[in-house]
Amino acid sequence: MKGARVGARATTSGRAGAPTPKDNKGDKVTSTPKAEASSRERMARWLSFFAEYNFTVEYKPGKQNVLADALSRRPDYELAHLAYLESPLYELIREAYADDDDLAGLVEALSAPNKAVELTA
Q1: What percent of the chain has pLDDT over 90?
Q2: How far, CA to CA in Å, does 104 sit from each of 23, 88, 116?
Q3: Strand ranges (E), 1-121
Q4: Which domain of life is it from (predicted)?
Q5: How far does the chain reach from its first CA to its final CA, in angstroms?
Q6: Which of 41, 48, 55, 84 has a CB 3.0–4.6 Å from the CB of 17, allowing a cystine?
Q7: 66-96: buried (b, 16+ CB within 10 Å) or exposed (e) per residue?
Q8: CB neighbours of 97 closer than 8 A, spacing ≥ 6?
């Protein structure tokens, strides 16, 4: 199954794991020989790792895969705290640019992108 990933809970106790295959057809990327070699090496490492475990892979399509859906909807990813600094520094810099004769034209051009402004050196 090209382009598919399998997530599994494997154990060494001899019990079967709980596999969760995921079809990642959207992950199509043009490949280079170096990337393909790296991919083959990575696959060999995974195969070597999984060879130590006794498990079976069972496909669960879409809505039947409730565990994966529940994990993707975890509520604890919401923002718990937001911190920011209030400082007059940006306003002071903005005022300094406006008062600077060399930068006044640049500030004007950036402030009104639809307006034609002639910049001279």
Answers
A1: 2
A2: 55, 20, 14
A3: 4-7, 20-23
A4: Eukaryota
A5: 62
A6: 55
A7: eeeeeeeeeeeeeeeeeeeeeeeeeeeeeee
A8: 103, 104, 106, 107
Supply the pLDDT for residue 3.
47
- For residue 69, give both structure tokens: 């859906």
Convert the pLDDT of each residue in 68-111 to its tens digit.
777 677 666 666 777 777 889 988 988 888 788 878 777 777 77
Residue type, 91: E
Calculate ∠ Cα 6-9-13, nearest 5°: 135
C-alpha dihedral (16, 20, 21, 24), degrees to nearest 10: -150
> Identity (one letter) of the amino acid at 85?
L
DSSP bridge partners of 5: 22
The position carrying tokens 């069972």 is: 58
Query: Measured between alpha carbons, how far is 8 from 58 in angstroms, rounded to an integer?
Result: 10
16: Cβ contacts below 8 Å, ≥ 6 apart = 54, 55, 56
CB 7 within 8 Å of CB 50? no
Between 103 and 10, residue with greater pLDDT:
103
